[in-house]
Amino acid sequence: MNGTRAVVLGAGIIGAACARELALAGAAVTVVDRGGPAAATTSHGEGNVLVSDKGPGPELALAQLSRELWPTVLTQVAERSAEGHRAAQAAEWDPKGGIVVATTSAGAHALARFADSQRSAGVRAEPLAPEALREAEPYVTREHTAAVHYGEDAQVQPAGAATALLTDALAAGAALRGGEEVCSGVVRGGRLTGVRTTHGLLEADLFVNAAGPWSGALAARLGAPVGVEPRRGDVLVTTPQPPTVFHKVYDADYVGSVGSGEEESQTSAVVESTRAGSLLIGSSRRRVGFDDRLRPEVLSAVAAKALRLFPSLARVPVMRAYGGFRPYVADHLPVIGADPRLPGLWHASGHEGAGIGLSVGTGRLLLHLVRGEPPPVDAAAFRVDRPAVLRPRQYQQQETT
Amino acid sequence: MTVPAARRVAVVGAGPAGLSAAHAALAAGARVTLIDAAEEPGGQYHRTVPETYGPQRPVRLQHGWRAFERRRRRVLAHPRCTWLPRTSVWALEQPQPEHEGPPRLHLLCAGPADGAGRTRHTLDVDALVLAVGAHDRVLPFPGWQLPGVCTAGAAQALAKGERVAVGERVVVAGSGPFLLPVAASLLDVGSRVLEVLEANTAATTARGWGRRPWELAAQAGKAVELAGHAAVLARHRVPYRTGRAVVEARGDGRVEEVVTARLRADWSVLDGTRRTLAVDTVCVSHGFSPQLELPLAAGCALDERPAPRCGPAGDGGADDARKSGRSGSLGAFVRVDEQQRTSVPWVFAAGEITGIAGAPSARAEGAVAGWSAATGGSTPRDPGRRRALRALRRSRDQGRAFAERLARAHPIGAAWPGWLRPQTVVCRCEETDYGSLCAAFATEAGSASRVAKLNTRAGLGPCQGRICGPTVAELRRRFLGDAPERPAEGLPRADPHRRPIAQPVRLGELAAPSAPLTDPGRRPEEESSS
């Protein structure tokens, strides 16, 4: 790719992963962000690297590719420089595994069926007998009906992970331009050849839209709108606790709410501890546009569901809450690939709450697509010209009727 | 004909500003809910010794005690007042954009600040007065994390509230007139105060206080109060030294000695002036940090006030500072207008969150805010009331002039980071050191405030950056310049004071449903039993 000029629009974790792959492959990469790197969606999430919440299909394949890449990528980053070493440390890679717990008999059946199908797709999903669950998670509710252990689930500190990827991209020659906003595109001969920013004209051979929940609006500015919208999620953080939660533990109905598109608020329990001892408690999903106002009743619902999983946490103080906007696509699949309407424009977005985990696989996949090589996973499902991306309104109407 | 219902006003904070706001709002006919985390009104200033301790001489303990006591009784006994002690406002919920009115208050009622058995309530009012005050600002120095180093405010709270001495051999150090009453309180409970150290040079302080001295006449009460404390110090032969600071604390497991040093006007250390002194306690205060989480949660705009330049500056200190761009900022305060209105409709602010000016000014601001909240800021028809309001505003304006002078006389010198070493702890909760912070700011890919915070953990611990937040923000500014960080659409600007959960709330409390306090005038326990 020597000589190829690439501009990555968005310095979140997806932009960082794409910039890293392109720069390591020899492209001259510039990363542009209107704010600071990793300061928006990336640093307002939980840091999930999950295979457990995905059923067989293209997204699971991308998750499996990413899960395989993560430890290698972080080792490479750490070995490249002292700065990279520090950043890789801050990524807090923790292959702790996940445990999904069902609390109703219907939930137990659904979980068993789901785990079965995942196993057929190569996921390690082991049912846990009550004693085994108690041993793995001594404080989890006794009122459960089934539990499955997912040994491949892992966790990162998302801002640190993004810093690590971007630091490595910069070490490979990429340039970072923060505080610079893209205003419009420059199209010559039907091809996107440049973007006008608040700082001037930026020309390149290819442009990657990695602006997360803002990528719908950014693509519209470039003349090729895509159906990516914000969906808000809130997370509670407790004061540091002695070790009480050992895996990423979540309620079986989390899987259902990940896949839902309802506008009204959805909550389900996801509980895990961080290296510093705080517990992270999620999660909610609300389609409220870019509305950042705190909704105590949403936090209350999240807390109530978490206590159903871990009743003994009732006296633990919550000291912080944060919320972020996740890039939502109506069919719940990311958008990765070339825009057929505007040559020169590529998209890497729409990962909703899974973007942290899927970032490294997305970067690798994008590189293959840009080079025209056979991709490591089937990318057809992520293509841009599908109804949910190009005609989101009609798609949603059809879905609901 | 129907009588219009009295306006419902919530006052958060029952210190001098809040109590005064409640008093004025009641006088103007409002129904008032007065909320404070403490058992008794008074705030940090009129901190009261619990009745069980039976203080013999409260009048000697406190300035303006009688007036405070009178106001306290009047407010609490008023039939239109609901007093909610031991109540935290843990969140403010902004209304829908089209909805008029202040945010909804989310309360945790009746229980010690972090205790069990609290109940969650909501409160909707017509107007909200925020009078939540300030806490000590403490700059880091090597060893400040050792047991035995405490904030001057904590030492005074123990002395005034529980008659407990924090130590036997104590140095009081930092900057500002607050050092004097703290030292006096410590002497009062039997500590031996070895020295009181004001970091600013006598020249800086004199220049700050000395400009247009006639403006100070209105603050005569404050001067008398300070003179009283100074006399106590003199009687106990406690030396008060200017241009000297504690630049290091040392000890094995707790403070055993401090290193003090002479400072230049910019707080850089003069070589050859270090002295060690055996102590068991150091009380530090470098001024005050306004408690801005609730104003920010309500959406109030802040004003960033540039710090006056230290050192041999001309008349226009603040302008010089802006030009040089190096001496940082005095910090942010809530922006208010003549009526104490904030930028958010029906939210008013009074006291230290609008500027550090002391109790007399806070009382005047509180009264103006209480009146405005209860009446919408209309001019009273009664000429006596009109005169009284004018006098209050005058007193408030004098207080603001005093605040500005105070800031000029006791600025934070720009060179204080020179005291730090790479391994000096900056965030005590998470033990983040200065070296890691510098490395984070120097990492191009990780220098955004929020990202540096997550990667170093500075400010993520139990105090949620209340102590280190402004310090980390200032260190970052020094490293990366003043350019403001642009937030993405929908996300708030990075601010060291932003804490959407303003007070810790237990998971069980949060999970339980909340009941609205529908009628201010009744206490939650009555409500639940009825």
UniProtKB/TrEMBL annotation, chain A:
What Gene3D superfamilies does the record point to?
Answer: D-Amino Acid Oxidase, subunit A, domain 2 (3.30.9.10), FAD/NAD(P)-binding domain (3.50.50.60)
- Per UniProt, which keywords does this protein have? Oxidoreductase
Record GO terms (molecular function): oxidoreductase activity
Q: Which residues form the FAD dependent oxidoreductase domain?
A: 6-367
- PROSITE patterns the record matches: PROKAR_LIPOPROTEIN (PS51257)
Tell me the Pfam families matching this sequence. DAO
Q: Which domain of life is it from?
A: Bacteria
User: Protein name, please?
Assistant: FAD-binding oxidoreductase
